[in-house]
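Notes from the 1:1 (GR / supervisor)

We went over the backlog. Supervisor wanted to see one worked example end to end before approving the batch request, so GR pasted a single chain during the call. The sequence is below; no edits were made to it. Supervisor asked that the structure be written out right there so they could see what the output format looks like.
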Amino acid sequence: MSSLTNLMRKDLRTIPDDASIREAARRMRDERIGSLFVEKAGDLIGIVTETDIVRRAVAEGVDLGKAAVNSIMTSPILTLEVTRTVQDAHDMMGDFGVRHLGVTDKGKLVGLISVRDLLVYFKQVSEPRITQD
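Structure output shown during the call:
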């Protein structure tokens, strides 16, 4: 089983903790990503995801232009070490019900793995079983 090094995204996309939820949503749309790490004074303090925006802001009627991402972010960031396997990431996402995990190297955040990354990986390593009629 492959380690996370080959699969994780190494370019950590961040947003200031006081940025608006609307700004985060626009960045996710424009950059075609599903999450942003939330940064305050140079430290990563959380992660905001599309799911956070929908469930914690839109569904609650929050003013997306005024409310800051720190009001809906997930904190602390769930992480696993880079030496762990793809299956470990899969299991952890399932256990915690999340779609994004930070990847650490000796405790330092160095990457991100998403459920989409896992789908691509498992598709590459599995044998085709389903055909279309």
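Supervisor's comment: The CA atoms of residues 81 and 108 lie 9 Å apart.
Batch request approved.
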